Amino acid sequence: MPIWKLHGNGRTVAPGEVVAPDERLSWPATIAVGVQHVIAMFGATFLVPVLTGFPVSTTLLFSGIGTLLFLVITRNRLPSYLGSSFAFIAPVTAATASQGMGSALAGIVAVGVLLVAVGLIVQFAGLGWIDRLMPPVVAGSIVALIGFNLAPVAWTNFQQAPVTGTVTLCAVILFSVLFRGFLGRISIFLGVIVGYVFAAIVGELDYSAIDAAPWVGLPEFHLANFASPGTWSVIAMFLPVVLVLIAENVGHVRGVATMTGASVNKQTGRALIADGVATTIAGTFGGSGTTTYGENIGVMAATRVYSTAAYWVAGATAILLSLSPKIGAVFNTIPAGVLGGVTTALYGLIGIIGIKIWVDNRVDFSRPVNQYTGAVALVIAIAGFTMQWGDFQLGAIVLGAAAALLIYHVGNAIARWRKTGADDGGPLPVIGQLGGDPQ
């Protein structure tokens, strides 16, 4: 594990340079950057347990522990913060409603274990098999359907206080276009603050739980329940989340490699293993599943500081914050209207990320295989299809993901056998200039 060496004078980063993972600024500057990473991750990380009903302090604790474990497993060579993954919201919400929190935690553990297994395979066999299993049209469909499947949840909260929801939603959108850089990236967090203040003004807040909570204390722990007969029926709906976590982790590694050097790509397998271990531990004891955070990529891009030292500071800070039940109680007072407004934007953005995968990879939607891969998966998710055999039920997320995989691979095989031209012919060729004024 590399020991950090001081970058330059320890205070500034020269134009065109970055602070590499094995470097650091002075400790005061490093601590400041680490705290900035906590602020960046906080808005999204606390929002997931608030939406799923999990304890906020417990999620903060395991995000901090998970981050430190990630740094150890990747041998201190890959800067990353592990925050709550939005991909878990839909299956956790469904599993908690039908079988309870213990079964939902078991689903998170199952995802973590499977992600570790995938990481081990990637470490020894490379990433090629993932690209073949989950090409862009399939990957985009699975990411998009997870977001769009949550639309009814957003509406349920929104309609409880539509004025507050509208104020919150407008604030999120306004901040995203009003500010540039770091403030623009935390527009959801800022929108929640505006919505919360508005809800306080109109009398929608209940502070009784805050008054009763102590300033210092251990988080609330819950154990995963594998013994309940209903647990195994809900685990299946968690499995597509593995594909999302793979895409997020691989994208994170490639993003860091672009700025710091191609050698970082060698940590891809370890990154998947580390996120899997962190998710498994979090799920075992009552925390939300984790993933590498794009918000913190934004901080690194803005500061040009890719030092892993800053993430040790961020992880330790999150652990310290988790030891205050009063902080967790504050976040639990966020009313339904605020949650409805912010999730209207947030869940839609998850869907748009999937569509962006299609756009970035120039998926050819003139091909029937690609058309039906996306079309069927999204309708299944938005409508909330389910299939049930006795006590065993498959929800819309697993059905949509399975449909995307089957339609793509079986459809391609038939189209290529018959030479009908309906198969995926690869990315569309670039014709002319993409955006901007004509040259």
UniProtKB/TrEMBL annotation:
GO molecular function, one term: xanthine transmembrane transporter activity
UniProt keyword Transmembrane, yes or no: yes
Topology in membrane: Multi-pass membrane protein
Record's GO cellular component terms: plasma membrane
Record family assignment: Belongs to the nucleobase:cation symporter-2 (NCS2) (TC 2.A.40) family.
Record has Plastid as a keyword: no
Keyword terms of this UniProt record: Membrane, Transmembrane, Transmembrane helix, Transport
One Pfam family matching this protein: Xan_ur_permease
Endpoints of the signal sequence: none
Subcellular location: Membrane
Subcellular location, principal: membrane
Ranges that cross the membrane: 54-73, 80-98, 104-130, 137-155, 161-179, 186-203, 223-246, 309-328, 334-357, 369-386, 392-410
The protein's name in its UniProt record: Nitrate reductase
Highest taxon listed in the record's lineage: Bacteria
